[in-house]
Amino acid sequence: MDSRSKANSVTYALVIVDRTGSRLLLTKTNAGLSLPTVKVAAGQRVAPQVAEQVWKHWALQACCLFVAGQGQSTIRSDGTRYAVVERIADNEEAPPGTRWVARDAIPELLGVTAGTKSVERAFRELDSYVRSRTTAAFGKPGWLRELFTWVGGLMALSCERLTGDFWQFNASPDFTLLRLETTGDAVWFKATGEPNRHELSVTLSLAQLFPDALPQILGVHPKWNGWLMREFRGIPLSKSSRLDAWFTAARELGVLQVRSIGKAAALKRAKCKDFKLPALTRDIDSFMSQMSALMAAQAKQEPRPLSQNELDILALRLKAACSLLQHAGLPDTLGTLDCNPGNILVRRERCVFLDWADACVSNPLITYEHFKEHFRRHCLNEPEAIKHFAAAYFGPWEAVVSRDCLDQARLNSPLVAVFQFAAASRRALRPAALRNESIAGYFRSIVRRMHREARQVDKGEQRCVA
User: Fold this and answer.
1) Residue 397 CB: number of other CB atoms within 10 A?
2) Whole-prediction pTM value?
3) Which of 37, 95, 223, 235 is deepest in the core (most CB within 10 A)?
4) Is there a single domain that holds both residue 436 and residue 333?
5) Which of 92, 110, 133 is the last residue of a domain?
6) pLDDT tens across 45-96, in order?
């Protein structure tokens, strides 16, 4: 590994336990016994990388239960972190160069070191998950075996069976996402905890209302707040630079939203978030008050903090934009605060939408604006390409509302979309989080973006008057 790769990697010491959680695997070195360690790429999913490295070095099929602590108490001075991993196979034999030892023997074998204390803390965390009856299902050894039994029973109904191969995408006591191979199409299991427990309710409701727009649901695991889906054989939009794929997704988003007209009450019952324009408007004053304090607290001179007068004018412009967008006549529809192209799978003229934790009821053009921003960043920020993207999205809408209504709405929707994103981000934070300078700086940048969008709206209105 070269110096650049090392700088972009993180070392994990692995607490590899057996199915009972009473023993762990140590590697033999010239200096004695030590925890196995692996390097993974920084900024990427830890669980699949750890599992891949465990198989590569020790030929063990493993499931990553959790990254211990997620705090400084479980990070060594050299930056090494700790991950708790379960060996899946029944075979009790230790791989060459390793040894299974009882957890009680750890202090004696490893000595009294900071690393030993971190291992003991990891085991205490593991024990707390094992004792819990209502949470942390995926932090307990044995859960993957139980999942395979449950999924195997469902697959037998369609004369399919699991092959045993799987790919784990995250490691968390309360969340999981896995892809499981079968003798037919692969299946995906997803489960969510707080603050996204509502995603199950939203997903089931949307799959019933719009079955063509979501993967097929094969079963629900209420105890784990999880569900099993059949894989849709499409390409993630985030990995496609083909303009026709993006145009298909834009058109299908428009179709989905048009089909959701009149279903706002059902969507709210399904626990979709309320980001209708009246609710957004009510957030403006409190939001701008907080942003005023953040601007006043800015220490550096560049970029220039917005003045109180500029913030007051921006607040008035936001209220006007929300009002004008409301009166443009577009009905409230299904939307999402996270229109991420990685959550959209496209195949020929069809696509499905994944990950509905941030589903909401809102003005449809707000979601469109977020999606258009992704298009600009991933594909082309050229007027002609954006024109075709817009035409694909607005095609289904032209049978519902007039061209004049759409033009009026499009004039104000970019500004409102930025504010909705900012308001949603603030709702997700604890109040004390805004004292963190990096978070405060992030919100100041969003407010500056809103200020620029407001000026663009003013220019657009002047062109319309002219």
Assistant:
1) 21
2) 0.89
3) 95
4) yes
5) 133
6) 999 999 999 999 999 999 999 998 764 445 566 678 899 999 998 767 899 9
